[in-house]
Amino acid sequence: MSDDEIPEFMPTYGVAEKIAEGVRRLTARNGGPLTFRGTNCYLLGEHEVTVIDPGPDDESHVSDLLAAVGAPIRRIVVTHDHADHAGAARRLSELTGAEVIGAAPSPARPFYTPDRVLADGDTVATEPGGLRAIATPGHTANHLCYDLADSGLLFSGDHVMGWSTSVVVPPDGRMADYMASLDRLAAIGPRTYLPGHGDEVIDGLARVAELKRHREAREAAILRALDGGDRTVEDIVAAVYIGLDPSLAAAAALSVAAHADWLEERGLVRKVADRLSRL
Ligand SMILES: [Zn+2]
């Protein structure tokens, strides 16, 4: 899927839609240019509930969650500490007594204060089965995906999304990590991905391969833009992202900067002040 082939996905806001046995999805009403239709919050279990990514710290969203859940919330599991995913964790925990578990906190986002941090391979028991954390840095340094045992389902957070490529923002995000984390998911084998934004991705392996090709093509385009001589990130964005929606220009510049860091790490590009050149 390319950036301009956005699939149909229209959630029913305020409703927890069943998407698999023991798994429901409630999409927050925070849609926008970087969040698509809004953040997907997943509810695991029917008698005692584990929430994966509670969503933004917004009173009406938390009310939606509490109205839809239908059973006590026991734990709140977080993929990464961006505010649209982890923002409501503390508020929801205070209202329900649920434990906040998952990605490590980072100084840049002090609102996120987990009770328990998971390392790669740690498993959380939930009603539908064990939820295994998979360290997938790249989008953020602390990003975790979660593999639900014996279900064929993998909660992919913002590492692999259902509508667009992930934004990799340096220095927290690193392109080298992001690419290695794509390989990491591929090594787990066939799964249906349930992402933080957009619809489910039935063939996760195909999507991972597509995302890798997309990044490789973008890198090749950046190198072509650099072939004529020194360039700034802004010059490269103008050359590579033709017809870009202006609201996404800042995100594009960050993505090019992330690619440039990775090229520099591999000795293919040199950065002096704000100018990049081929080596
Ligand atoms: Zn994010």
Automatic annotation (TrEMBL):
One of its GO terms (molecular function) is hydrolase activity. It holds the Pfam family Lactamase_B. InterPro entries: LACTB2_WH (IPR041516), Metallo-B-lactamas (IPR001279), RibonucZ/Hydroxyglut_hydro (IPR036866), Sec-metab_biosynth-thioest (IPR050662), WH-like_DNA-bd_sf (IPR036388). Residues 38-197 form the Metallo-beta-lactamase domain. CDD domains: metallo-hydrolase-like_MBL-fold. The keyword Hydrolase applies. This is MBL fold metallo-hydrolase. It comes from Pleomorphomonas diazotrophica.
